[in-house]
Write a structure and sequence with these properties.
Layout: E1 2-7, E2 11-12, E3 18-26, E4 32-39, E5 46-51, E6 58-60, E7 68-73, E8 78-83, E9 92-102, E10 113-116, E11 120-124
Parallel strand pairs: 2-11
Antiparallel strand pairs: 1-3, 3-8, 4-5, 4-9, 5-6, 7-8, 9-10, 9-11
Length: 126
């Protein structure tokens, strides 16, 4: 079982940048496709971005396309979310998740992700 652990969330000003990281305990993160999701206060958790196990496929939510980039370094067993041009509406708890099955491609379906981290808070405010 893969157990994701997120880090990197903090307070940042509008227009700023932030990079989140996701590592995992248990089985190797490098064999699973992974995704980032977020949940703002009073809202449902939503998809942000995902990446295939080998990094060859990526999918983004329309709201972050062109501003966020998901990458991975399988040698370091780490998945990243680079967030640029941040807006106040990006404020949320960001979760890293891994697919239920190995060697998958990027996808945006929450039900496909079986292991979730505890989340890291990102606050965009002046």
């Amino acid at each position: 079982q893969v157990q994701p652990v997120e880090s990197g969330g903090e307070l940042v000003q509008p227009g700023g940048s932030l990079k989140l990281s996701c590592v995992a305990s248990g089985q190797k993160l490098s064999t699973y496709d992974a995704g980032w999701f977020r949940q703002a206060p009073g809202k449902e958790r939503e998809f942000v971005a995902s990446i295939g196990w080998d990094g060859r496929s990526t999918v983004y939510a329309d709201s972050v396309k062109g501003r966020f980039a998901i990458t991975r370094d399988n040698a370091k067993e780490t998945v990243y979310l680079q967030m640029n041009s941040l807006k106040p509406e990006d404020t949320a708890v960001y979760y890293c998740a891994t697919d239920r099955y190995r060697y998958g491609v990027a996808n945006r379906r929450q039900r496909e992700f079986g292991s979730w981290g505890q989340g890291t808070q990102v606050t965009v405010s002046s």
